[in-house]
Amino acid sequence: MVNRESGILLHLTSLPSKYGIGDLGKHAYEFIDFLQEGSQRLWQILPLNPTGFKDSPYQSFSTFAGNPLLICPEELKRWGLLTESDLEVMPEFPEDHVDYGKVINFKNKLLRIAYENFVKAKTHPLVEPYEAFVHNNKVWLDDYALFMAVKFHFIKERSLPGNTKDYARFARLNKKYLTEEQLADYYYGAVWQSWPEDISKRKASAMTKWRAALAEEIAYYQFLQFIFVKQFTNLKTYANENGVKIIGDIPIFVALDSSDCWANTPLFMLDKHGNPTDVAGVPPDYFSEDGQLWGNPLYEWSEMKRTGYTWWLARIQKVLEFCDVVRIDHFRGFEAYWQIPYGETTAKNGKWIPGPGGELFEVIKKELGDLPIIAEDLGIITPGVEALRDELGLPGMKVIQFGFDAGHHNKNLPQNFETSQSVVYTGTHDNDTTIGWYEQTSAEVQDQFRRYLNVSGEDVAWDMIRLAFLSVAKMAIVPMQDVLRQTKLSRMNTPGTSNGNWQYRIKDEDLKPEIAQQLNYLSLLSDRNIDQEEDTNEALIDDGKTSVG
Question: Is 185 an active-site residue?
Fold first, then answer.
């Protein structure tokens, strides 16, 4: 019998914390306790990497590194790297969303203090583990730490009055592709293509020079990664000990302004200046009539193949250090990807190009074995994509919000799920909340929803959760916004937009015992509570105290 499981989608940044952003501290442990009390065995998060453009976890400075903003200051204090006085004065952070500007400034100050105290305490018990970590992770950490050190060196240098000597050169090379505003953002944000040519092209003499000049900064970024890994490893251990598995996320593409791209230019479609020749996105779809212009550089798959896909193997291995299951975003891009000429302002003028197909996954299986992978197969899905997914034996995704506007044969309606191996969602981080969706959809779709579920429409979020849990899907995952019956104001991300996303947070008082009890009830009802005896009839008797809608 296939074990049926359920869980909640909530990114770490969305947790409560007095430091303005969710982190790896006590509230993350309390959320695991909440999951355990509600018989939820899955915690799905978004990518853990350092965020870049517009604070998106899908535009990161590194696919291997962790986000330092997730480091918990309280843990640093417990380890003797911060004092109570360091934490006494802080900005007034909003409770219900992340103000990234305030958070970045405040946390960076704390992290600097923690590093300085670490350096001073030469006999600190973390010194030896830190040195071992730096040695064992050289393959990605050296490039990442140097990338960050050089990047912020030039950000600081270019912020000085009148220091624009290289701007004209950069603008001349890029004005064909970028607006005036983008040129300034790229230059003063010190994307690596704007660096002096010797270091942007990684000439040996420049690499030696900058490693020496910025040795202290490089050590600082290595320290942050060590602390992140230590804190996350402790959290994952606690989750697993309490029967909770963490589902991680790998974006199919990486950011142009990343150490991955800078350190591995032959693996990407770049010209001699480091600019993309073509970029990633998707054509017009459910989310956007202009399509989505992501702007990520595309892979040179022939070079990936020539090198035995070693970069991808390392990437998969790294994320599985932190997660028990991994969702690969935009799986359809392995069958065919949407190639858009660099400089286009929308995603309309692209074309489908064949991807590596099953070959990459065959190498992954050969080198790493059978892995717990979820294929994100949403959007424009062709028979070829479905065939690849099924050939590889990967579970795909069903989103019930998509199920009510294309007749009774819609593949997102539970009676049409092709296999019990599917992973069903009420919605994802890219969808509106279920209440937001219902309030903004057409009267015809609302009517179809009510008829299908035989409900009044007064509690659509939990009606949808019940439908997901009772479906045949092996895994049922629900965004926390739906569990809390929240409106469109709590949406995490709106695809095709760049402002106001990734800011959602829950509050301390949201994790109520009665909500955990309701989740537990639904888990019992739908046979998703794997710790219970088979005969659970008595537990399912509704005594009036347990309500799910």
Answer: no
Cβ atoms < 10 Å from Cβ of 352: 14
Name the catalytic one among 23, 249, 335, 376.
376
Instruction: For residue 373, report the phi and psi dihedrals to the nearest 5 degrees.
Output: -115, 135
- The reply to whether 376 belongs to the active site is yes
Our measurement of the distance from residue 375's CA atom to the centroid of its chain's CA atoms, rounded to an integer in Å, reads 15
Per annotation, catalytic residue among 55, 329, 463, 482: 329
Q: 277-311, pLDDT tens digit by residue?
A: 999 999 987 767 889 899 999 999 999 999 999 99
Residue 430 annotated in active site: yes
For the chain, the C-alpha Rg in angstroms (whole number) is: 24
Task: Give the whole-angstrom CA distance, residue 245 versus residue 36.
Answer: 11
How many residues does this entry show for the chain?
Answer: 549
- The percent of residues above 90 in pLDDT, for the chain, comes to 86
Q: What angle do CA 531, 246, 394 make, to 5 degrees?
A: 90
- Cα angle 471, 249, 111 (rounded to 5 degrees) comes to 135
Active-site residue, selected from the candidate residues 430, 432, 463, 482 = 430
Cα dihedral 454, 460, 462, 466 sign: positive
Nearest Cα to Cα of residue 242 among 45, 41, 43: 41
Please, what's the largest Cα pairwise distance for the chain?
A: 76
Residues 6+ apart with CB under 8 A from 401: 412, 426, 427, 431, 432, 434, 437, 464
Q: Give the closest residue to 49 by CA, choosing from 24, 68, 21.
A: 68
d(CA 413, CA 417): 7
Q: What are 286's two structure tokens?
A: 């459910």
- In this structure, are residues 317 and 368 in contact, taking their beta carbons and an 8 Å threshold? yes
Q: Which two tokens stand for residue 60?
A: 């990161």
Closest-CA residue to 302 (of 324, 269, 278, 335):
269
Model confidence over 305-343: pLDDT tens digits? 999 999 999 999 999 999 999 999 999 999 999 999 999
Would you state the structure tokens that stand for residue 227, as one six-digit string? 């602390």
